User: What shape does this take?
Amino acid sequence: MTGVIVLIVALLVAVAAGLVLKARSGKVQSFDRTDHGDSPGISTSVNVITGDDLGEPLGERATLVQFSTEFCAFCPQTRVLLTGLSAEHPGVKFVEVDAAENMDLTRRFKVFSTPTVLVVRPGGDIAARSSGKQQKAEMSQALQSVLDDAGHGARW
Amino acid sequence: MIDSRGPRFGAAITTVVLAIVLATQSGWLLFAQTLVFAVGAIAGLRYAPYGLIYRNLVQPRLGPPAKTEAEAPPRFSQGVGMVFAGVGSLGFALGVPLVGLIFAAFALIAAFLNAVFDYCLGCQMYLIIQRFRTAA
Assistant: This one.
């Protein structure tokens, strides 16, 4: 009897977890621009990622950062999607970070699942974030809003 | 590269097997499932028993795959399944059936998520394990 109860509980947990994961997967969370001014200490900020963090300069208009692992089911297709977006838009760079090899960044940006994508403004400010299976429409939109914003850069 | 439908088919069979393990509290069946996980993880998915069933009986009826994927993620997740099912089997063998049931239940949740929602929980465990390993 205990076994049947455990079975029913496990199935309920699995269905609930599956629905939550499905709802979250690919959902883009957007962030307002953070005003970090001229502070030299920004490199440890959780809102800002720098060229030093990534080991290469940021893109001129935007950077798409993908946290991946070797054993990640949706990382390859996300890589294809983001590589395509960066090729379509001049000044947009794609950088892939091995989450297991760069544990400092993984912890700083609280990456618990892969792929996790950061859409980064030219100054390093993180504009949007998304985990799981990525949809082209949502990613394009997140990138476009950074590109549009950069077009009105004079305001800032 | 492998047919993406193969691991999901295997996960569906695994879900059913683990459901029977729980309902009947069968330590032997859980041990058999542990061996199935072990073959996939250690020898490779090419030799995985449920994969053999898929390739010989199911795939010929479905036709060529629309989508392929790398072998490493599902193979790693078979290893995670092996550890959970192995600990559960040990629980049954040592006369602590509750441990057997709980670990079998975790393996069932992972297999169900894979089969029904195409979510590889075992794959996500890799980064979580790395985070623990480097936490010290």
User: Anything to note?
Assistant: The longest helix of chain A spans residues 2-24. Helices of chain A lie at 2-24, 51-54, 75-88, 103-108, 136-151. The longest strand of chain A covers residues 62-68. Chain A has a mean pLDDT of 90.
